[in-house]
Every structure is written in structure tokens, then in C-alpha cells.
Amino acid sequence: MSYLEIKDLEISFPTPKGKYVAVRDINLSIEKGEIISIIGHSGCGKSTIMNAIGGMTIPTGGSVELAGKKIKGPGPDRGIVFQNYSLLPWLTVYQNIFQAVDAVMDCSKKEKQEIVTNNLSMVSLLQHKDKLPGQLSGGMKQRVAIARAFAINPGVLLLDEPFGALDALTKGTMQLELLKLWNLSGRDKTIVMITHDIEEAIFLSDRIVVLNNGPASTIREIEHVHLPRPRNKIEIVKMPEYLEIRDRLLHLLTDKFSVEDMGVVYKK
Amino acid sequence: MSETETITATESEKIESAIPLNEDVQKENKLKYYLSLVIDKSKSLFFACIGLLLFGGFWSFMSNYTENELPGPVATLTVMQEMLSDPFYDYGPNDKGIGLLLIASVGTVLSGFLIGSVVAIPLGILMGASKTFKQILYPLVQLLKPVSPLAWFPIGLVVFKDTGMATIFIVFITSLWSTVINTSFGIGSIPQDHKNVAKAFGFSKWRYLTKILIPFSLPHIITGLRLSIGVAWLVIVAGEMLSGASGIGFFVWDSWNALSLEKVISAILIIGIVGLLFDKLFTFIENKVSYKA
Hints:
The complex is a heterodimer.
Chain A: E1 4-15, E2 18-30, E3 35-39, H1 46-54, E4 61-66, E5 69-70, E6 78-81, H2 93-104, H3 109-122, H4 138-151, E7 156-160, H5 168-184, E8 190-195, H6 198-204, E9 207-211, E10 219-224, H7 233-236, H8 240-253
Parallel strand pairs in A: 3-8, 3-9, 6-7, 7-8
Antiparallel strand pairs in A: 1-2, 1-4, 4-5, 9-10
Helix pairs in contact in A: 2-3, 2-4, 3-4, 4-5
Chain B: H1 2-21, H2 23-65, H3 73-85, H4 98-129, H5 131-144, H6 153-160, H7 163-188, H8 192-200, H9 205-243, H10 248-257, H11 261-289
Helix pairs in contact in B: 3-11, 4-5, 4-7, 4-9, 6-7, 7-9, 9-10, 9-11, 10-11
């Protein structure tokens, strides 16, 4: 029995035209401390699976179990980082994290304040603690959101396309920030993240789950990434295993690689 | 790992050390900023004056055209000055200074407006938060909103048997609609993102109310209040003409009966200024509670 166990998961929504099945037959066992990426085309049900683990949607079939207990709703054992940061714009950086900690944690106010301060300094935002989200850049906002998710000290971190809206350079820094936090917490936090980015998935994950196109998506393939940690961005791209995985993922996710594949023929 | 930390440390050091170096430049920038602010303000003041002058010119023209039956700006302003020089005299119920009349009217408007808001805001919250409440109340609001508040005056009289109370009652009715509609719109448009935060981090009802629902909808509520008090101030003049209760509205009617158009126009200007001040006050609060996403 794994730490996070997804069994025969099916999620469907009633529509006027009948039942719409978003995902089905999802089986996935995730160990404690594993980093898993879910990758697939838009609308293939990645977020649906994520929401089921987060407890934001209730499965219509099968189950999601965390540490042997069936997930029935959101809980403090899972920290969620939303794609669009989801900070409350009227609260300062500090208050955004404090409100979450205050809602979830069962300890004295002083300890809570310490938790917030620690997590803010871990993402190097302590000197910005009194700013409002509107005064921060996209990367900084996402760092606040990640700090908020880490602050409640969950066993599982769920990241829904966390770096999708960031520019390539900021994205690279943020991936390292995430690994830093994961290392600082003793590599025992399980991370499940959704991404569109093959390089990102390989750099971060232990396993990469590739989904079929929706509707009624299933798992198409699970790629194991055996690259040694800590990984170095420049080093790993030269490793043959990295290249192999990247090729396989590219083939799984795309079927056209040049304009010729699209039926365009050059004439001189 | 430690590498990222040292990088951020040196970066913040750079930023801090950059401040004293560029102090002169910063001062200059600040000066430029204030200068541009002053220029902007004086520009808009200048254009406002042009508007007033145009209005005054048109007014003078109309006054000449009606052979001074409509008093001109100079005659009016002289009377107005007289009125304002002794605003708080009290020679019995039908002869009071303009200041006392204004206080009476503002008092009526504020009481009606306050009671109205106390009813309208919770009602709006209910309508915004619950679909059922919206289905129950929204048709009623739609039905009653277009009715002139003056039509409620006889009902107020019957219920309260008192003209003063009836006037407060019509202001109360007037103050409801914009606040109810804006509040319910504000509450109803809380983004799913914010609700997800509450859900994911297990916010209690109270925390959701105080940290998400109210901060998000406060700007909408204040807008509703601003519109409401605007209409309430509109209605008070007509209300006092109906009720005969002492106040600025009754003063207009009384001056008309005494054939002092100078006083009527002075009162119109004063009513306008007070309305403007109400609006400015609520715009100020609106800016205080609004936030940048």
C-alpha cells in the first residue's frame, strides 16, 4: 500500500447531453517523497485528477487514498499551489500566508508567526512581507503561493501548472526554488505537479505520467526518470537517458515534428 | 542550494546600496513628480473655471433675455452672500437660517440612508450568496425600484402618522435599491480562485466572511452606498416640498411662494454643492477600500 493511492479513478460530470467522462481507469501508486509530473494536452483531465487528490472534486468512481485514508474533501495534509497564484489581493504577503497557517495549524500565535517568517525567508521574500500581491512580479507571487502551501506543512504538495505563466528565465529559478524547499524539508514531501513542459517534467520528476487526450482520458504511459539527484540543469541535458526520455515524451505528445509532417513540400 | 541564497543576498544588497548613491536623482524625480501633479491639478482647475464661466455667461444671457425676471449671477450671489452671512438664525418654524435648514435636511437624509443601508447591505449579501434568496427578492427589487420614492409618501404617512417620519421613510426606500443591487453583484462575483483558496486551506465561515467576502465586495458596496445617497439627496428636496417639513427643499418652495428667485437659485447651488460633497466623501472611501489585483 503506497502513501498516495489512486484506484480505478473515474470522474464524470452530468451535462444536458448526458454524462461527460473526464478521466477513467486511473491507477497510480505514489510513494512518500516522490515527485510526479502529470503531462498531457489541454483538456485531457490533468486538473481533474489534481482536484480529486486535492479533494476539490469528489470522484464518481474509484478512490483516492492518502496514508490509507480515503480523501473526502480538502485537508491540511495537502497543500495546493494554483496556476494563477490565487493570492488574496487585499492581504499583504505576510497575511496571505498567515491566514492559511492560522486556519490550518493548531498551535500558539507566536509559533504561527514563526512558521510564516521561516517560510517567507525560505523563498527569500522576507523583506517584501508587507507588500500587497499587486506590487509583486509574477515569479514573486508564485513564490508566495508556494511558501503558503509549504507553510501548512502538508505531506503532499499539489502544483497545478505552477510555472506556466512565468517567463523562461524566472521559470528556471522557480524550479530550483521548489527543489530547494523539497530538499530543506528532508525530501519527504510528495509532490504532484501538472505541467506542459517536457524539460521541466524531466528535470524535476521521479516519474512522469502521460495522459491520453480527452474526453475519458486514461494513463497512456508512465516514464521513470532515473537521473541522479541533485540534478544539474546543464549536466543532465547531456546525459543519454535524458535525451531518450525527452524523445519518447515528444513522440507520445506530438505526432508532427516538421512542416513536412504537416504536408507542406518545399519547391525551389 | 546555498548558491541561490547568496545570489539573492547580493541582489538585495545592490538594491539597498543603490539608494544612497542615487539620492540626488531621486530627489529630482520626486520634484518632477510633484511639479507634474501641480500642473495637472491647475490644468483641470483651469478647465473647470472655463465651464463655470460658460455657465455664468449663459445664465446672464438668459437673465437679460427674460428682462431680469430670472435673476442674474450678480443679484443671486448677493442674496446668497446674505444668506450665508447669518446661516444659523432661528425666528420660528418658517424662518430659519440656511445652515439650520441644511442640517435638518442632511439629518433626514442621513437617518433614512443609514436605516436603508442597514437593511440593504445584509439583503444584498443574502441575494448575492444564495440563489434561492435572489430568486425570491430580485423580482421584488425590479418591481419596486422604478417607482418614484415620492409615491411612498402617503404610505409613510399612514404608517407613521407623522410627516417627518414619512420623509425619512421615503429616503429609506430610495436608499435601498442601488445598495442592494451593488452588494449582491459584488458578493455574486467573488472569483472561483478566491473561493478555492478558502476551500483548500479550510477557512472557517467567519474567516471566509472577514478575509474574502467582505474585502472583495466592499468596493461594490461602497459604490452602491454612493449611488444611494446621491438619489436620497435628490429625493429630499421633493420630499420636503410634499411634507412641508423644515429643510432646504421646503426652503426652495417657500422662496418660490415668496417670489424670491434669487433664494431659489442660491438654494439650488447649495444643494448641488452638498450633493457633490457627499459624492466626494464616498469616492474617497471607495478609493480607500479598493485594491489592485
